[in-house]
Amino acid sequence: MTDSRAKGARAERAWATWLRENLNCPQARRGRQYSGSPDSPDVACGVPGTHPEVKHVERLNLYDAISQACRDSGEDSIPYVAHRRNRTGWLVTCRAEDWLRLSRLIVATNEGKDIGKGDLTARD
Predict the structure, then answer these.
(1) CATH classification of 3-95 is 3.40.1350.10, yes or no?
(2) Is this model's pTM higher than 0.85 or not?
């Protein structure tokens, strides 16, 4: 495995760990690596209804990464890119219409309950 492929695999495992630790996704794991399809996300068993593309690079072309996530996700999944640089935290990027879909899903399922580290329906 080349250095960049090994770095990508480490990033996918790190994102799966982040999901397990922060979003109570105990089954999150690195996905099967095929040529990109709805059946082979970078991280499997993460947030239901989503399809992540995971990147760990210093210079990321977000539009190319989002296009890849959209191509690979299928129609029913919300594509997003989880990305980071060296010595930084994770960022998550998605299209505005997908953020809206995800937000509606969270609001519909939250029902005012405390989820994770904060109540997403709380108003200031």
Answers:
(1) yes
(2) no
